[in-house]
Write a structure and sequence with these properties.
Strand content: under 5%
Distance between the termini: 47 Å
Largest sheet: 2 strands, antiparallel
Order of helices and strands: HEEHHHHHHHHHHHHHH
Number of helices: 15
Structural class: mainly alpha
Strand order of the largest sheet: 1-2
Shape: globular
Helix content: over 70%
Length: 433
């Protein structure tokens, strides 16, 4: 008898699941290729930092905006569902933060354990410091995603009552920050970590409400071309870096424009994606990547640590990045990482299931925000300082306290204070653009 596929909720769009599943291997592949280990003594570096073809590949292959668009789609869908049952913003933020914080803590401990074993086996401390710093870099997504997720209830309301002013306000703010930081020397560039990614997340709200799908396909093509054209103006006229990875830290207006281009291109491809993902085998792959997505993203750095540790223990050489031998060894390097990840995907979810269930309280909004801030602060510390500094122990402790706080859900909202259930959710007018 054929295996029955799980029932798909009516408000779930498989094209969103498909692009998230597609983006995940691309991100892991990029991080794996960027890990360069060479020299005497060995040091870790960005192997692709001077590989010029990557600069132009990032105009298509840098898919983090698509991740945030998909995240916006999922976030507003979950919030509307919860709001329709009478849920609160505090409850939403608590649930999302807890689901993120728990696997992040276990992954941080996994990296620290791996580095500790490598240190006990005699790895050079200076190499470990450079390697640990590289392993921390993917954490930026966790910090920014946690912040954007906590804004979903507020941004959903703004999307409902003032969609266009919200889009233009975020975009205008991002442009102003760019101009003031680049041409006036005012150090406010990090503000675009918030403005740019909130704008891109907001694009996902528009996808959820079918804004772009209602537009003529020819218009979507022209809008995508216009977005890339403005990127060319910024690069060749205003001397922005053409490397989209460089434009990530902090995000510049090019990431905003890339997000626009990707949402238009995604809408154009959406009918084809939906048709392909309905195939049983494709749906099974998409489902598996969805189930193990968080494990793959958080633990692929552990997998790299394990592979490097084995390579050191076996006395295998580390070719100079970008040389012929380095490119030849990338295939076994990536396959080894995938093999370790497959083992971790069988183990880690079982560990994560050991977490105690959160108490059935509706947590107050300020408390949910405070615990989320602890999550962001602890991850931000490791991201900026690396794993092998004294303050990392404090950061891990703060993250554990945040998890305990979110699990307890205190202080709770009294029953008399809860929002009444609503028959209709926080709907958005479909008349936007």
């Amino acid at each position: 008898m054929a295996t029955q596929l799980p029932r798909i909720p009516p408000d779930r769009d498989l094209s969103i699941d498909a692009v998230r599943a597609l983006c995940l291997p691309v991100v892991v592949l990029l991080h794996a290729l960027q890990m360069g280990i060479s020299g005497d003594p060995l040091r870790a570096s960005n192997a692709l930092a001077h590989w010029q073809p990557l600069v132009w590949i990032t105009w298509v292959g840098m898919i983090m905006p698509t991740f945030f668009i998909a995240g916006g789609f999922a976030g507003i869908t979950t919030w509307r569902r919860l709001r329709g049952r009478g849920g609160t913003a505090g409850e939403y933020i608590r649930t999302r933060a807890l689901r993120l914080a728990r696997p992040v803590l276990t992954a941080l401990l996994g990296v620290l354990l791996t580095l500790g074993i490598m240190a006990l086996c005699g790895a050079d401390p200076d190499f470990l410091r450079s390697f640990a710093f590289r392993l921390a870099e993917p954490l930026w997504f966790i910090a920014v995603y946690a912040i954007c997720t906590s804004f979903v209830p507020l941004m959903s309301r703004l999307h409902r009552i003032a969609a266009w002013p919200t889009y233009f306000g975020l975009a205008g703010g991002a442009v102003a920050v760019d101009l003031l930081s680049r041409f006036a020397g005012i150090p406010i560039g990090p503000l675009n970590w918030l403005l740019v990614w909130l704008f891109v997340q907001q694009l996902g709200f528009g996808v959820r409400d079918g804004w772009y799908a209602k537009r003529p396909r020819r218009l979507l093509v022209l809008l995508a071309i216009a977005a890339y054209g403005l990127m060319c103006v910024a690069v060749f006229g205003l001397h922005y870096s053409p490397d989209m990875l460089t434009n990530l830290n902090p995000p510049t207006v090019l990431i905003l424009l890339l997000g626009l281009a990707q949402v238009y291109l995604f809408t154009l491809l959406q009918p084809l994606i939906r048709a392909v993902v309905k195939r049983r085998r494709v749906l099974m792959v998409v489902g598996a990547l969805g189930v193990f997505g968080m494990t793959i993203y958080l633990w692929h750095t552990v997998a790299m640590g394990v592979v490097v540790g084995i390579q050191l223990a076996a006395g295998l050489p580390f070719p100079e990045p970008l040389g012929a031998s380095w490119w030849l060894t990338r295939v076994p390097w990536i396959l080894a990482i995938v093999a370790v990840l497959a083992v971790l995907c069988a183990i880690v979810p079982r560990i994560d299931r050991l977490w105690p269930r959160e108490r059935a309280h509706t947590m107050r909004l300020w408390a949910s925000i405070g615990a989320t801030a602890m999550l962001v602060g602890s991850v931000g510390w490791v991201l900026t300082q690396g794993y092998l500094v004294p303050g990392t122990a404090v950061a891990v402790g703060v993250l554990a306290l945040a998890i305990a706080w979110l699990t307890l859900g205190v202080p709770a909202v009294a029953e008399s204070e809860k929002y009444p259930a609503r028959a209709t959710s926080d709907r958005v007018s479909s008349s936007g653009g």
